[in-house]
Amino acid sequence: MGNSNLQGRLFRGVNLKFALKNSRTLSLNWHSPVEIGTRAILPNGHVGLVVDISMGDGSSAQIEFPDPAPITSEQHLRAFKSTCLELGLLPWLHLFKLLPSALSEYTKERLESNTNLTSFLDAKSSKVLSSLLGKSMSLRALKGKLGEKHLNHLLSIGLLKKIKTEPYRAREFSPTSTPPEGLSKSLSKLLAILESLGSATLSELNLRGFNANQVNALIKRGLIEEKSIIPPKFTPLRSKFDKRVYSAPYSSLFERIHALSESANGSLIIISQNKPLLKELANYLAQMASKNILSITTDEKPENLYSNYFSAQAKSCVVLSQEAGFFLPAFSLEKIILLGNVDEPFFMLLSENLCKELSIPLYHLDISSKLFFLKDAAELDLEEPNLLVVQRAPGEILTKKAKELIERDSGKRVLFLVSKSGYSYGYCKQCNSFAHCPVCQNLLTLNKDLSQAYCTSCGFSSEALCPECNSKLLPMGFGVQRLEEEAKILLSSSENFEFSTNPQKDGLYDLVIVANADPILSVPRFNSLFNYLDYILRASRLSRSLTLVQTSEVSNPLLKGLSFVDMLKELLSEREKRSL
Prior knowledge:
Elements: E1 14-19, E2 25-30, E3 39-41, E4 47-55, H1 74-87, H2 91-98, H3 101-104, E5 107-113, H4 123-131, E6 136-138, H5 139-146, H6 148-156, E7 160-167, E8 171-175, H7 185-197, H8 202-207, H9 212-220, E9 224-228, E10 243-247, H10 250-263, E11 267-271, H11 275-288, E12 292-296, H12 302-311, E13 317-321, E14 333-339, H13 345-358, E15 362-366, E16 379-382, E17 387-391, H14 400-408, E18 414-418, E19 424-428, E20 433-434, E21 445-446, E22 452-454, E23 461-463, E24 474-476, H15 480-490, E25 497-500, E26 509-516, H16 518-522, H17 528-540, E27 543-551, H18 564-579
Parallel strand pairs: 10-15, 10-16, 11-13, 11-14, 12-13, 14-15, 17-27, 18-25, 18-26, 26-27
Antiparallel strand pairs: 1-2, 1-4, 3-4, 5-6, 5-7, 8-9, 19-20, 19-21, 19-24, 21-22, 22-23
Helix pairs in contact: 1-2, 1-13, 5-6, 7-9, 17-18
């Protein structure tokens, strides 16, 4: 990307190539220094991103550059473009889809009512439009009140109109003097935090328990000042590219991230598609870390996200981000960490390409063993889970041991897991077999009142009758609905119980019970045992202490007392060989 004869990145009398939201590009002349990755407001009012520069002649176009620094770098764009081309994607169309609105739009969009005639509308629309008379509301807030479809309808018929406000400003706060005597405890604490950090954005201060009123109180007293953020030129802390993989409970992963952040000389970017997980990590680090903690997620207000984005380019920090983290030229970027499940090949490939381009290490931390960078990993660490495996008798749903553990300390937060959805499998006594879907041949599932049979794979549904002989289907085995029914009957306290088929819940539990995951083992595939062990591993990562595993399979390898991690590593190695 860029002309090989133009290596300095700064030019005069140049032709700028802009990427646009519609995947097209536009070339315009410009006279002043500019960098690849800079965002611009073009003559037609649209947002463009400088993606290439060449020598050019002619008069300069009317272009505005609203940001204090580029929103990304040439290296980031090169890695992104090569990833898109490798997967057959349109780079610039995909880029604007991944950028948050604070970076893909120029100003905050607000809406106001375009009429005071609301009597012909439904009650909800009439109430909202009446409340907007003489004032405006943000697009985000109004979407929350009306819903996107309803909002777009009112815009299309002209009852709402969009208005533009001032563009976002990148700002943060820094101390100007020591706290005087008589300052309240909360304001003294706020000032002490700012002195230890040097400066912080409003969003970061919110994360640490302070609000805008407290910040304004210190500004009025002249103890802190608001200042604009002006980041320096992006320079990563180049070392060497390698991949490091860790699987452990979230508590251990958080501790590892904290240790990595404290030992780092530069910035860390932690990228996850799981917003609740990022929020939990942010709260954890805010209590522990000595560095600035900056959140760049869609949970942030656009104006706060904007300030955080450029603050991350101005000082060493820990950044918690969704997809926007792949474009952020963070200050002295040292490491990129992928946290949690990465379920899209695009992000797996992009993270690897980007770290290679920047010559920095890539970490993947997850509770699962389905980690994507096992091949050629410089380091692989799987923490041994704390399991208690018990034999479950045929027809039994909860074993005596499960009941014991729950009743021992009532009030525990308990997660019950079973790999089967619905109430149970459908069994035909006449045919002496489980009923199979007539469309895809998978086993049929019964609903809770046993009146319907359905297929969880293709969606087929019918009365609870055998497709072969038309006999009534009987319940056999149990799914999550039957497990919930049984637990509430047998156990005295159930207000802290949660039930799920997938060990991917948020938060931690005092006890996790895998009531039945044996159906995973029964699937005739070469990786059935691996999938089973991974299910158990993910379940164990959600427990603060013990995970109870029930099984009716006498041949279950967990009953043999073998090392869980040793079995898993052997299967991971086998899976890697098969994927070659």
